[in-house]
Each structure stands twice: as C-alpha cells, then as structure tokens.
Design a protein that fits this description.
This protein is an alpha/beta fold. It contains eleven helices and seven strands. Helix 5 runs parallel beside helix 8 and helix 8 packs parallel to helix 10.
C-alpha cells in the first residue's frame, strides 16, 4: 500500500511537471496573439485619428503670405513689427505709420513658431535703414512647434529658410503634437455632433480675412473682453533665457544699419499678479543682458483685464490704442523718423 501511494505520488509530480511544460507554449502563443490583436487595435485607432492629415482649423497661418507681400513691396525705411499673436492684437500699425510717416508692417503671427523662427525671419527680410520692434510673449519657446513650422512653410515656402528640418523632430512632432491635436479635434467634433448645439458662435478672429493690409487683426471698439481670459495660469513657463537667445541672434546676424528694439508684450494685470516675482525676474534679466534698445518698462505694458479681448496677451481695441500710443510716444521721443539713421 505504501509503495502504491509512493508510485501514485510520483506520477502526480510527473504529471504536474509535464503539464507545466505543455502549457507554456500554449500560453506564450496566446500572449502573442493577444499582443497582436492589441497592436492592431491601437493602429486602427491611430488610423482613424490620422487618416486625414491634420489641417489648421482655418486659414489663419496663410496670412504670412499677405504680410510678406506687403513687406516686399514697401520702400525702406520700413518699420517691422514681429512677435507672437500679442502684436497682431495689440499694435495698430496704421496708426504708427500715420504718426511717424514710416512704412509699417506687422509680421506677427503665432507664438508657436518659436523665437528662432521669428528671429531668422527678421534676419532674412531686414534691409538697411529698417526699424524692427520685436515683442515676443513671455512664454515664447526657442524652437516652437515643429509641425506648425512645416505647415507654415508649405503655405509660404520661403519660410523653410527660417528653421532647420529634422527627421527626429518630425517623428517627435507626430507622436507628441499632432496625435494630441488630431485626437482633440476628433473628440471635440463628436461632442459637437452629439450636443447638437446650434447657438451662434463668437467672432472668429483667427482667420486670414480678419487681418487688415498692415498685418493687424481687425478690431472694433464694441468688442468686449471675454469673461474668462485664456492663458490665465498661476505657473506660466516664462522663458528666462530669452534675453540671451535674442542677443546671440543679433550678434550672429548682420543687421547692418538696422535699428533693433525690444518691446515688452502686453499682459493682463490678473496674470501678472499670479506670478509677479517671476515676471519681475524676467525683466531684470532682460535689462541686464540684452544689448538692444528697450521700449519702456515692463509695468507700462501691464494693463487692466478690461482692456483685453480673449486671452491675457490679446488686447481689445481700446487696449491696442493705448499700447500703440505709448510706443509712438517713445519712438518720437528718441527721434525716430523716416530718414535713414
């Protein structure tokens, strides 16, 4: 009896071992198939998201063509305004031209193009006797969004000279920028379809047709500030290296007989108060490290929220006029005129 039990127990061990060995390839095969199905599912989702190349929601970026067309047809001296969207909402180029008698164009477009793109653009178009006013947002990054640059250059091929093309950046852009944008668009469109919301939409300022011939966004005195200004955050990513980036570019670029000014961007008071210490630090670094003329002080361009339109950087008509008059006053004070300096 004892021998029989021993034999049975031994057989049980052998059975367990052989079963374990037998199940391993089955489980591995099942795992591989599950992994394959999961991969196919992910690729199918990505295909749905990216099957139509992501396009800009409107033709806003196409305004770069009109801006450069105007610039190319103006005689020097020319006053060129550059920066992100804060300058297209916040500066009245016609008022500057009428006040100073200098041909003026606003090349500003989108903060996402990055500092080096805009500075390279200025270096490419600048001619002797030109006057440049550069006013990027505090959060302007150096490289910007690669896909936005590509789309801009496809619209205006000359812009391929304003940045370096890189395969790694293209892949990174696809994975971390484009997929997010496309997924967001899909989700937004689904919500809109299901909600059936047919309420009247607010004015779409972000369109090529909203630019005037000087390169500014068309504003009306009746446009009031939105209840909640976009970009109002407690921890803005302020680019503390901006002064060095601008200064290095000025040194490397042959801005022969070009007068280069830096102007602080317009900023809503509520946003300034949320990170006052950091904004002050930015100003101190800029004054200590930038070898370019600075128009006014930082606080002069901090305005009440009532003078803004939809974001903490975008002034309304009244705010734009106030800021423009400040710039004109400064330029007149230092003797800027249509005569070549």
């Amino acid at each position: 009896m004892g021998i029989l039990c021993h034999i049975n127990y031994g057989n049980l061990i052998l059975f367990k071992q052989s079963t374990r060995v037998y199940l391993f390839p089955i489980l591995m095969k099942k795992f591989i198939f599950n992994l394959l199905y999961f991969s196919l599912f992910i690729f199918a989702c990505l295909f749905v998201i990216v099957r139509n190349p992501h396009k800009l929601k409107n033709d806003f970026i196409e305004a770069i063509v009109d801006k450069h067309d105007r610039l190319n047809n103006l005689q020097t001296p020319r006053l060129i305004i550059a920066g992100g969207s804060n300058v297209i909402f916040g500066i009245d180029s016609k008022l500057i031209q009428d006040s100073l008698g200098i041909n003026t164009v606003n090349l500003g477009l989108h903060v996402g193009l990055g500092l080096d793109f805009i500075l390279n653009e200025l270096a490419y178009v600048a001619k002797p006797c030109d006057i440049i006013i550069f006013s990027p947002e505090y959060t302007s990054g150096t490289e910007g969004y690669y896909e936005l640059r590509i789309q801009t250059a496809k619209i205006y091929p000359v812009a391929f000279n304003f940045f370096e093309r890189d395969l790694f950046k293209k892949i990174k852009s696809f994975l971390f920028e484009q997929l997010q944008l496309r997924l967001k668009d899909k989700i937004d469109s689904l919500f809109k379809e299901r909600s059936g919301n047919k309420k009247s939409k607010p004015i779409n300022f972000y369109s090529r047709r909203m630019f005037d011939k000087y390169g500014d966004i068309k504003l009306h005195p009746g446009y009031k500030a939105y209840k909640n200004l976009g970009g109002n955050i407690s921890s803005p990513k302020i680019n503390m290296r901006m002064a060095k980036i601008i200064d290095d570019k000025i040194k490397k670029t042959d801005f022969e007989k070009v007068r280069f000014f830096y102007s602080f961007p317009s900023l809503a008071l509520s946003q300034y108060k949320q990170a006052e210490v950091r904004y002050k630090r930015f100003s101190n670094i800029l004054h200590n490290n930038l070898n370019a003329e600075i128009i006014g002080t930082q606080k002069e361009y901090i305005y009440p929220d009532s003078l803004f339109l939809d974001t903490v950087y975008h002034l309304n008509w009244h705010g734009r006029r106030k800021r423009t008059l400040q710039i004109i006053s400064y330029l007149k004070k230092i003797g800027i005129s249509k005569e070549c300096f």
